[in-house]
Amino acid sequence: MSPAPVIIAIDGRSGSGKTTLAIELAARLREHHKVSLFHLEDIYPGWNGLAAGIERYVTTVLSPLRRGENAEWVSWDWARHYDGEARTTRPAEIVLVEGVGAAAAAAVPLLDAVIWADSSDADRRARALARDGDTYEPFWDQWAAQEAEWLAADDVPSRADLHVLNLADGTAPDDVLQALQYLPAVAPALLPELAARRGLQLLAERIEARPEAGQLFAALFGGSPNAVWLDSSLDPAGLAPEAAERSRFSILADDGGRFGQAVRHSSGRTRVSTGQATVTTDGPFFRWLDGVWGRRALRAPEAYPCEFTLGWLGYLGYELKRETGGSDVTAATPDACLIFAGRAVVLDHAEGTAWLLTLDAPDAGDWLETARTAVTAAASAQAAAHASPAQRVSAPQTTAPRFAARDSEAGYKAKVTEAQREIAEGNTYEVCLTTVLTAASPAGPHGVDPWPAYLDLRRRNPAPFASFLRFGGLAVASTSPERFLQIAADGTMRAEPIKGTRRRDTDPGTDAALRRELESSAKDRAENIMIVDLLRNDLSHFAVPGSVAVSRLCAIESYATVHQMVSTIDARLRPGMPRAEAVAACFPAGSMTGAPKVSTMAILDRLEGAPRGVYSGAIGYFSLSGAADLAVAIRTLVVSALGEGAAELSLGVGGAVTADSTPQEEYDEIRTKAFGVLSTLGAGFPSG
Questions:
Q1: Is 56 helix (H, G, I), strand (E, B) or coil?
Q2: What number is the average pLDDT over the span 371-396?
């Protein structure tokens, strides 16, 4: 008896390309493994034998293979329409079983993974008849009816681990092989494939240029369904050293190319798409992240100054708090959306250079040529804009959306008072109370297009951690000034919480007075220091003892629409500690919860009574170098497609409530924080 094999079923309707997929997948796996392949079409007893064939397959083939024994079975003679010769399928390290019914309900307990192959009805019929010719055509409708009846009672697609849209263009086997590595039941058997994946080669080119970033993003990734622009839109020239460091690099990427992937996580379920294949797994997101990030897979090229060497980019939503001590709340948007970028452009605003990064692949040379051309064109556009500023193009005029607030003024003030009652009773020290503004955006020219809206937003309110994210029908436009957490490749960690905000004023004297008022505010300093203490504790869980230090306390930084109070906490990650868990230990940002974190999150759940979604989470990257840099998702407009061109706009706003707060001042603060985004859209804060 052989050891029990890993058994993978490839199921799907007739003509979906299961047989070709199985044969090509087996060929790739045989490079490192012994592989057996079984085709169900060899065992169906005739054109009316789907149900009987599935039963034969489970009892005479699958069951003995599961035990590591030879499978002795009787084939079907399609020419004589009768039982044919006896055959043997031997177990191997990996067994692929393919055919209609390979993942039937009776088979599931004996399988390690289920792949569902799909394609359009027209393509399926054409492929099936092209393969089997005249022998199949008279029976197509009969067989299709059996498939429909079986699937009506046994919904295989809904429980498949991996879905693949088989376009018959040769990409499906590689996509499936890459996706299979995310399945816990299969991954241990694919260690050689995982090792090959880690043996990645980075190609890098440096170009002396200052391209117009918006044009460059549109040229390279404007047509990509999933794309990310981490946009340091605040010019670092003339800034204090700390602010200049945060504003130095911009990263532009999509999930295209050979290595591109996209992941969405919602309520404990992670879905990874790689090319035409999509794999679904259950479990905590941060555990999944630890499996794909945190170990140094690529070193930075010589003289390359940025920590990002390709990797995962996107957002982590606030509701991931369920994994870090918070309660389980379901959000309308995914709890996390990331892309894996196997190619990207990094702009160094300090040195005036553009770095082209791509993993070595057959399509790498073509992409580098395309990227060079795009950088050159965008640099010319930037030069022209500086020469003739009047030619700058603004966002198209749209009808200003009418926002509604989840909480009325009276309602929000009442929640402030209730938060202070919790403080007075000793249940918390500080409560970062939030609310949300929403608006409907109609289809057509009067609706809000998130791309031009973001370009206008970044122009009016530049910020060191601005970003534009597009994940299919979900867009995120953020001008966040706040770093949540940075982990450098060498293990250096940094958090930079913001607590304390004042509006900017066009009158220089008034503006200076507002800055001084913030600087001297005992209440704002108390808020900031409480969050600093919380973050010192968060960082200490994975830090080298004694390495946690506050290098800046309650410093004032000024942005286009607000003055902010910022502190900096530094630490060093203990060697060997899981980096994803270090992120989880600090998530969500203490500046968006209050202190102590866990008990205050429970208070917030009760007071707010609704999920926050993207808002209050984090936006940034997880690099193949082992580095990460994440911003707090504030000053963030979320645009969710509703279908047929309509969308919902969402803007979260909030502030920290302490014992010294007044309800009116807290309400005025959320109006101040909403101003930058609302004014860009031509909208006002809802009255009432």
A1: helix
A2: 73
